[in-house]
Amino acid sequence: MDFDLTDPERAFQEAVRRFGDTVLRPQERRIDTEGRIPDEVLREMAHLGLLSMMVPPEYGGMGASAVLTEIAAEEIGRGDLSMATAVFFLLEAGWGRTLALHGTEAARHEILPAVCRGESFLGIATTEPTGGSDLAGMRTESHREGSEFVLHGEKAFLSGVEEARSRGGGHLTLTRSRGTAGGFNFLYVPTGHPSLATQRFANMGRMGISTGAITYDHARVPERYLLGEEGRGFGIALEGFTVARTFVSAACVGAAERALEIGTAYLRERRAFGQPLGKFEGIQFELADLYAQIEAVKWQCRRAAWLIDQRFGPDARPDAAARSELERVVAAVKLTAPPVAFETIKRVMMWFGAAGYTREVGLERGFRGIMSYMVGAEGGLNIMRIILGRELLGKEFVPYK
Ligand SMILES: Cc1cc2nc3c(=O)[nH]c(=O)nc-3n(C[C@H](O)[C@H](O)[C@H](O)COP(=O)(O)OP(=O)(O)OC[C@H]3O[C@@H](n4cnc5c(N)ncnc54)[C@H](O)[C@@H]3O)c2cc1C
Q: Do 238 and 293 belong together in one domain?
């Protein structure tokens, strides 16, 4: 067992941290107030190979491991506390990997190179206005007509709808199959498609990336946009979520680490009752607890990424035990990382007193951004508990059909 990064991994981590320090941090406020990630940020990310980095080189990516991607997610979460850049990064990383593994050869060549160059956006569409947690209860349908699939229905709360519309790109869209085989079809749907109507929601945080709805009015996409086999898309989407949740958690770890660094510096310098704040045990103990929690979740997260590399690589044939282990580990980390980051940011804001409540200090951007992962993005906390209950007790204990 070796917890050390290799030399190339360390060099890569340093390069992404430099990007975070010199490119992201100076733009953090602008990303939040202008409601978009500036083109120069995305260009630099593409230059560093950070967009869809797990995609193999033949489709324009760097073929990175999950561990390296997890390291990058941490650094990007640290660089832009609002989570907007981290969301952009991890959607491309997680769902780019899914398309590279399960898409047709034609779709990979057509879609992925532009995503890796930052010229096109790739997102995920599963949630519907009637709910996102009960994935199998979705209503949006698709069926095959000749060499096309026809989609009808509505998806909501999707990250990147505006980006995919303005920059080009689309969403991997899970739909109930009306075909004889039943099941679910997982299809790439370009957002610029003429029979799609889109809407942007007014979010409270991570303002640099849009969230919106898409309505499909008998939208037709070519059969080359189907991932995996007809009617068999559900499992592919679930595996994609497991991978994406690992990177979400890593971004939360990075944000928590940065918030704690900001807080630690403040505890050294800010004085009350004639002493630095850091001298008060009541505050020191909070610092110690937060550090211990971040450290635990950081390594839990790294292990999840390592498991993805070990058991879910391109040539792997993971058995049920391997799938169950990864589901457990990732559900546990996604259950833990957002609340740890949220609590860290909240505590540090309180150490700052009134200043913590201002936009100047900027911690509120993290507070609003991390909240997206508390309420539901990439699966709500209770859904992680349901996964853990199922994996620890057995499927017969799942209280739903
Ligand atoms: C900023 C943001 C970005 C998002 N981006 C995307 C995206 O790109 N693509 C996409 O498809 N979706 C996206 N989502 C939606 C996200 O996946 C859903 O919010 C999530 O799946 C929960 O669905 P819901 O919001 O409809 O809540 P519901 O399913 O209605 O659940 C409401 C609450 O009840 C809890 N709950 C549900 N069932 C149970 C149960 N059985 N037991 C106990 N508690 C339960 C949930 O955890 C949640 O807290 C995004 C959400 C946000 C906030």
A: yes
